[in-house]
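Re: weekly structure request thread

Next one in the queue (292 aa):
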Amino acid sequence: MKRDAAEPSRGAAGPSPTSQRGAERPAQVNGHGREAGTGHPHGRRGPQVARFGHGSRVPGWDDAADLSRDPAVIPDAATTPVPAQLRAEIEAHMAKYPDFRSAAIPALAAAQRHHGWCSPEAIEQAACVMALTPGYLISVASFYDMLETHPVGCHDVYVCTNISCSLCGADELMERLREEIGDDAETFNLRAFECLGACDIAPMASVDGTYVGPIDLDEVPTLIEQVRDGTPPLPNKQLKLRKSTDQNAAGAPIPGATPTAPTSYGPPMTDDASGPPAAIEESSDVTSSDGG
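Done, posted below.
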């Protein structure tokens, strides 16, 4: 499930299995997994993505359940107002599946787009349309990282901090973005993210769904200014604008953008490589395996 490293326990539900592993968890400063002043073996300093000494990310914690409340029931359609556009979108997703519950993720995504996050009101409305309990949808929303169960900024900036990006400077990029954004939590939803599947442009980030990289530290102020102004972020480094053999892969061109060329892996081969023939090529009489 989606976890928040800032929450130290599971509340009334009692200690979790992970809470018994306290001795294994590194000392944390400001929510990060390295002691102040220890830095990084490669010279990195400042807040880092929380990791164990061997490099694995430190897991967070689930939101505590309120066990004092009565179980929620399916919201009453007569007393639960749902915006017509949101209702139509959720019902369209439900019609795609033999089991309507399979539409839980797209329904929650639609509610999040409408409300800005999966707020209690958004959950209530989606549950009303789907004739499910809010608890059912909360269990789904709390599992997936891109479904927000707390208020967030209106622009998503997900920095890949998995191994390839981390080795290429993702921790430094994350810290530089924090410095540039400051306390503007209403505009930016800045998060370290697990592998975004774009190792070839590391270190990279997903900016409102657009893959951008590799991002140099001195490009961060420009990137943040572009997001604030509503202009395309670092268009010369957008993955979707790179040339591709798949004609359907590239996005619509951005005026003035000159996408960087893909990484070169050496000159193209102009002829077959020379070398000794394979054994099967030397034999003119090949016998089949069945003796024929």
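Residues 3-47 have pLDDT under 50 and may be disordered. Residues 155-241 form a domain with the Glutaredoxin fold (CATH 3.40.30.10).
Next request, please.
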